[in-house]
Specification:
Blueprint lengths: L2 E9 L11 E3 L2 H4 L5 E8 L6 H14 L6 E3 L3 E3 L5 E8 L5 H6 L14 H7 L3 E7 L5 E8 L5 H17 L25 H13 L8 E3 L2 H11 L5 H16 L7 E7 L17 E6 L9 H13 L3 H7 L3 H8 L5 H6 L1 E6 L3 E6 L3 H9 L6 E3 L1
Parallel strand pairs: 6-7
Antiparallel strand pairs: 1-6, 2-5, 3-8, 4-5, 7-8, 9-14, 10-11, 10-13, 12-13
Length: 381
Amino acid sequence: MEISIISREIIKPSSATPNHLRTQKLSRLDQSNIDTFISMIFFYDKAPKNSDQLKTSLSQTLSHYYPLAGQVKDHLSVDCNDNGITFVEAQVVAPVDMSDVLKRHEFDPEGQLVPRKEHEMLEDQSILAVQVSYFGCGGVSICFLIRHVIADATTATNFIKSWSAISCNGDGVVINDVMILDGTSIFPPRDDSGMSASSGGAHKMLFSSSETLKKRFTFEGSKISALKEKIGNRPTRFEAVFAVIWGAVEAAKREGDDLVATIPVNLRKRMKPPLPDQCFGNIHTIIQANWPTEETTSYSSVTEKIHELISMVNGEYVKKAHPNGWILYLVTNNGNGRLDTIRRRDLIRNHGGISVSFNSRSSSSFADQTAKMGDFIQWSL
């Protein structure tokens, strides 16, 4: 696939951020994230008539989500300086069609639909970048790259929904107002002035290693419904899909393999008192699930355990558990060899909420086991 860049510019908020809001402090939950990025690509059959509407509405949306147009400072705060975000327009050179791209095992292996390289954004401390790519068939893709240290998946989704609403209906539309709270009052930060450099190193080691394995799976709604019916204990869609993936990993493991699943849980509605879904920032925790090596698991037992673990998460749990502490430990103690241990493992990542790590000896066997689950999923390598 060949991409021709049409334009590259900086989009700033439509209104200046007031002086008293110029500094957004990072909470302990923000600091606990390795300095990586949330990336999303949306594909549409029909491109907008012109890009001016997209740019104008994006500028208006940034005035509501003003930290996204700023810069991270020493892993302690965000300078809401209205510097703006990178906005790229590109043309996909024929004869590549959007439907061809969607059929590929990897949408964009060379990162041509992505607005910037992650290491570039880490270097200049920017937070958000967007690329709009036009296909000859009339379709368009919109890619978002949002820095995880300031936003979780819920925040990213809310931003995208707000931009969509403003783009379709104008700035006067009533959107679910974003709430940019001082999260440090709930989750007091720690002084991690030296964190930025070490977390950048952790990002490179964890996600740029040649030993990292990534695979994409597509789950049909009808197949998920059939799977839920088969399991029989009324699992959620997430729990059912998790059970399938866990079953494949477990079947592929070899003697001595360590299997640990990490699951992000949105805390907004689990806090006491609950927080609105529109709260900005990282307001989630990580829970871990594993089973003894000798224990035989079924889809039913897996979903029951996951449901039980997630149900235990509430505000009190978070205060006691020091969320993401294991990640923070790895990043701040990378001289102790712990990161090398993680780097030697293959990491299966699903931004929808499942991360499973296992010893690299199992990687090829994992693909074999997953291929046997054709009754429930469509899969691609």
